[in-house]
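Supplementary Note 3. Input sequence used for the single-chain structure prediction.
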Amino acid sequence: MADDALLFVVPERHPLVGAALSAVGELECAESPAVLGWLHAHGIPRSSERVRVVPAGAEVLVPEGAERLPVPLSEEETLRVEHACAPRSVTDMESELLGFRDTTQDWQALVHRPLTAGIPAPRIAQLTGLDPQDVVRAVGD
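The predicted structure, written as discrete structure tokens, is reproduced below.
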């Protein structure tokens, strides 16, 4: 184990900084009794988006007052954490937004097909994350 990184819990209603622990792949330290006990003490699963990690030297990103825990990382794990914390390029973000637009452009037709197949509107809302009222309105459009 080489570098120390910081695990921390992002406070409620605070912007997400660093990388989600679940997004960096398996870290050896994540299975340690210290980390498991720390997560348990905070009542938060390690899969939560609020459990974040930053590499050594990026402690300034950790919000003031956030619960923190230094953890050791191997060289390979440090590279994964650094990569996950690196800012994404504007081009990547714009591509993601275009993909979202393409996916959502014809959402009414996407919703209408399962409705006509007999899937109830509340179930469609649950699966898609759409507002139930929007699902019902899609039938009328």
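The chain has six helices and four strands. The mean pLDDT is 87.
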